[in-house]
Design brief:
Elements (H helix, E strand, L loop, with lengths): L6 E5 L4 H12 L3 E6 L2 H13 L3 E6 L5 H15 L4 E4 L14 H29 L2 E6 L2 H5 L5 H21 L4 E8 L12 H9 L9 H12 L10 E4 L6
Parallel strand pairs: 1-2, 1-4, 2-3, 4-5, 5-6, 6-7
Helix pairs in contact: 1-8, 3-4, 4-6
Length: 246
């Protein structure tokens, strides 16, 4: 087990990539805190982890609310006395072309995808600095690197996440903390599964290997970067995209 006895918090852990990451990290031996805004989703993932012999508990949190984030970290420390891995996976979309995008769409995505990552990263960094060790993993996107039609807000936030990742890596490295980002490509989640088949085929054709990714592909990247196998990797952005951006 690559993460035996580690303690990991996964935001957005109630569904999609976050849920798969929580289950995979637990399978690798970590004690997992499943954090999400939806209590029902949290309970489902926690039960799946426990049913597979893992250890987990859930915390309802809105990552935009700093007080709730601080409470999440406090609850983790009260339960497990440490925090080894912080996975900032929570994120949303609210797509629209630039000329049609509303201020509400912009603010909502920026709040969750940027401020949420900042809140959780800052809270985790304070604990990890005292410990002298830790790993922070941030969810970016290939959209944050290359942009995408109709996703001005999302692209801006995911590029911002990369900037935070590199800045934190420089600031926190001397404290024993590694910081990296994962940039998923086209991933089959409950949201993408609802797309028309012709759109999915178009997405597949953009990849040299003619495939879409799955949540487990991103979860595997999180596990690797959180483990000692990646002990000499910090400040990087790992694209997990089937070569779609080549």
């Amino acid at each position: 087990m690559r993460l035996k006895d580690k303690v990991a918090v996964i935001t957005g852990g109630g569904g999609g990539i976050g849920a798969e990451a929580a289950k995979k990290i637990a399978k690798e031996g970590a004690k997992v805190v499943v954090a999400d805004i939806n209590e029902g989703d949290i309970n489902r993932v926690v039960e799946e982890i426990k049913g597979s012999g893992g250890e987990a508990f859930g915390i309802v949190v809105d990552v935009v609310d700093k007080e709730q984030v601080d409470k999440m970290i406090k609850g983790t420390l009260e339960k497990y006395c440490k925090l080894d891995i912080m996975v900032n996976n929570a994120g949303i979309t609210a797509d629209s072309k630039l000329v049609n995008m509303t201020e509400e769409q912009w603010d909502k995505v920026v709040d969750v995808n940027l401020k949420g990552v900042y809140n959780c990263g800052q809270a985790a960094a304070k604990v990890m600095t005292e410990q002298g060790s830790g790993v922070i993993l941030n969810a970016s996107s290939v959209v944050g690197i290359y942009g995408n039609f109709g996703q001005t807000n999302y692209a801006a936030t995911k590029w911002g996440v990369i900037g935070m990742t590199k800045s934190w890596a420089k600031e926190l490295g001397s404290k024993g903390i590694r910081v990296n980002a994962v940039a998923p490509g086209f991933i089959m989640t409950p949201m993408t599964e609802k797309m028309p088949e012709k759109i999915l085929d178009m997405m597949r054709k953009k990849s040299p290997i003619k495939q879409l990714g799955y949540p487990e592909d991103i979860a595997n990247a999180y596990v690797f970067l959180a483990s000692d196998e990646a002990k000499f990797i910090t400040g990087t952005v790992l694209s997990v995209d089937g070569g779609v951006v080549l």
